[in-house]
Automatic annotation (TrEMBL):
Stated name of the protein: LysR family transcriptional regulator
Family: Belongs to the LysR transcriptional regulatory family.
Residue ranges occupied by any HTH lysR-type domain in the UniProt entry: 6-63
InterPro entries, per the entry: LTTR, LysR_HTH_N, LysR_subst-bd, WH-like_DNA-bd_sf, WH_DNA-bd_sf
PROSITE patterns per the UniProt record, alphabetical: HTH_LYSR
Amino acid sequence: MSQTNFDVAALRSFVTGMDLGSFAKAADRVGRSTSAVSAQIRKLEEQVGAPLFRKAGRGLGLTDAGEVMLRYARRLVELNDEAVVAARGTDLEGWVRLGLQEDFGESLLPGVLGRFARAHPKVRIEARVARNADLTERLDAGELDLALVWDDLNLSLQARRAAGASIEVAKPPLHWIGSDALQWSPDSGEPLPLVLFDGGCMLCSLATDALDRAGIAWRVALTSPSLAGLWAAAAAGLGMTVRTPYGLPSTVRTLDPADYGLPPLPSLGLSLLRASSAATAPVEQLATIVVEAVRGYAGVGAEGASIAA
């Protein structure tokens, strides 16, 4: 019996299409025509022996076979890229200092650092998990080489991008986060209880500004210096909080604002900043891996990809 050998290029097109929500956009990303990418996807379905897609509204969702294939495709593409980097960078040495948000500390950091360490065992990595202001201050002070931060107009991101010191990684939606233990309802006449970071938080400020514009009363039920504290308080029903889907634990869930009479929330850009002096090969390699990992993060991928749009 002959073995089935998947084409890594086809797997990459499949993964990219699902991440971008469009195989036409994926064609641009992978440098192929839309018809060539469509042919790759048809070939994958033939090799799997089952449909990968089903109708989902105006787009296409994944079948059970498609969900399984997407998980393996990510792993195969990552392993392929890891092998290429490892083979080409066996002599890479140096030091990289990476800073990122708490949202990625448990969900993303171990996989990224493990993948990088396997490919470049001679490179040492120092990682810091902190909030936006701290990360950008340390980056500007020369204490970090890379920082994954939420976009903030005060960061002069356009100037950084023009100088090649910033990469726009993703633009995930903000969500109201809570649990079934929450007792508040719009009919209660009580202000909406919120659980917030202490010392100020850009994401929370966007939420409270939206509530103020909608004329919805709110109160601070609890503040915490850590994201884990916000998750625990929201899970216990003490109030709602606001985050993106990154790193969302199973104890809480995203809430439909219409169910609670709340205003919708905007999307928030996420960028990888690089210190002006950090243009070494190890820094560039880690930056590539971080960007790929965030863009392919499970749970924040495309919903209903389109072959033609």
